[in-house]
Amino acid sequence: MLKDLCLLNGTSGDEGAVRDYIISKIKDNCEYKVDALGSIIAFKKGKHKADKKVMVCAHMDEVGFIITDITDDGYLKFYPVGGIDARVVADRKVSINNIDGVIGLKPIHLLSSDEKEKAVSFKNLFIDIGAKDKADAEKYVSLGDCAYFSSDYYEFGNGFIKAKALDDRIGCMLMIELINSELEYDTYFCFNVQEEVGLRGSKCTSFDVQPDVSVILESTTAADLCGVTGGDRVCVLGNGPVISFMDGRTVYDKDLYNLARKVAENNGIPAQTKTAIAGGNDAGAIQTSAKGSKVIAISLPSRYIHSSSSVVKSEDIENTRKLLNKLLPKLYD
Questions:
Q1: pLDDT digits 0-9 by tens, 35-82
Q2: Is 315 among the catalytic positions?
Q3: Which listed residue (195, 196, 315, 318) is catalytic?
Q4: 57, 90, 223, 304: most buried, per Cβ within 10 A?
Q5: Which own/partner contact pairs does 245-249 have at CB distance under 8 Å and 24+ positions apart?
Q6: pLDDT digit string, tens, across residues 159-216
């Protein structure tokens, strides 16, 4: 299921293929609706009716690109949708409307000394689809079309997985599994749109559900790389799910943070926290929407996030699955 989800294209505002796939997997085991922005709000009955409203969330969208101009000689100019570092984009294969292309830039042999010293900028990048001129390119691409990293899904090394869109199709997969399982208590599940461009979908779904407690399933940046030590590593692949106490958008509920750490410890589930106050996720909107909600984020550590080649470890997915199964019933106490 994770491979299927990652290979689907769905940048912010263009999540239709991902949404259709998720609905096909959950429609027989829950009540659901799609809101005006395109998020899925699902309700799964449990063995017991709950006194609290608990909502589990993940976002469907991925980072990508949007076409802003077509040059006279048939190249496509574009802008990032979501936080993408221009340095990881050059020379990557992309797809637009099932047409293949390559992101190009001026070759190093032709750069001036000043140009060699400057950082790569999206202003200097273009997409080459092999068109002979503007009229030829316009047969296949229109302004406002989305472009996506073309990236295979594969496993390598000792349990590592490489793909695009692991942020946050892992969270979507785990939620599908929960909906299709037997739950102790009634639970809401929101597959949100447009997280990568400002947490927009989650603001709407949280106003709709108005949860008391919200669990945000995410991926988060791991910097466990060569030459990086101590807290600068942020989190480490293989050390289990990341339970955050704070990030760039949210201060997480202290009781929920402590509860999750205790549940992990008591059940022998490896878990870690995030040793950098950076980034953000849908919790930033959910926490302060409507009457407010207690929030907790449980994330998968991911190397090279927001690129064509994000990397996670399968044992971290399994340990996140174990933690969720143990933690969710305790959120109703």
A1: 999 999 999 999 999 889 999 999 999 999 999 999 999 999 999 999
A2: no
A3: 195
A4: 57
A5: 245/273, 245/274, 246/277, 247/274, 247/277, 247/278, 247/279, 247/280, 247/281, 247/283, 247/284, 247/297, 248/277, 248/278, 248/279, 248/280, 249/199, 249/279, 249/280, 249/281, 249/283, 249/284
A6: 999 999 999 999 999 999 999 999 999 999 999 999 999 999 999 999 999 999 999 9
